[in-house]
Known about the structure:
Blueprint: H1 10-16, H2 21-24, H3 31-47, E1 54-58, H4 64-71, E2 75-80, H5 83-90, E3 95-99, E4 112-117, H6 127-140, E5 141-153, H7 156-163, H8 170-182, E6 184-185, E7 196-199, H9 201-210, E8 214-220, H10 231-235, H11 238-251, E9 263-269
Amino acid sequence: MTETPPRMREEILAYYARGMEDARLRPGGAPSGRLEFWRTQDVLRRLLPAAPARVLDVGGGSGVHAEWLARDGYAVELVDPVPLHVEQASRLPGVAAQLGDARELAACDSSYDVVLLLGPLYHLPEQADRVRALAEAGRVVRPGGMVVAATINRYAQLHDLMREERYFTPEHRERTDAVLADGRHPYHDEGFFTVAHFAQPGEVTAEFIDARLAVEGQYGVEGVAWLMGGVEDWLDDPARRETVLAACRHIESEPTLLGASGHLLTVGRRPSA
């Protein structure tokens, strides 16, 4: 009997079909989203092999990162389960986009130099699905190739709501505190986000190991800068933005501060042998 292909939850698909993801990370979007973009770009540019390496951007959304990767000279292909995202990414120069699911990639074995999972893991509430997605990334990347995955840290919502003073609303506080127990963020009709899993840094490395990927490092994306007042003014000025990025680099892999960041990048490799 043929196994049923995996299906993304309807709440998640509906959330991203609203079209907000593209603007979130671009100039003019929320300060925390722009900081996430600049820092993700900063870390990847230091880690990735030289262009024209082949990059598979799994769950790449509307192509915000695929766009600059293609501009940098990489051969970029994007896979995403949201039709709107695929349509948006297909319009970008140098980016090939198609519908697909991180847990069951259509790509051939060992066909890419790098696989990025900058969104899928935090929308897979079940550990087995996250490990399956990481294992698929390990299958399609070449031996010795790099896999980079983004996760949302366990305390990100708590920090975010405290920063915006929404934590003092009893309903928001109750829901936020519930997420801290196991990282499961449920769907709410009037909620700020959709179904998600907020992970502890050590939990992510364990899942990489379960997927037979050798962990090389972890990088706090926003550090503590995303919690500072007025950060949007710093990001809009290129010189001051570089100061923020440089400050984040100082603590990006400090173990005691990894969980303070909103997002975390975990880097691993498929063993050569």
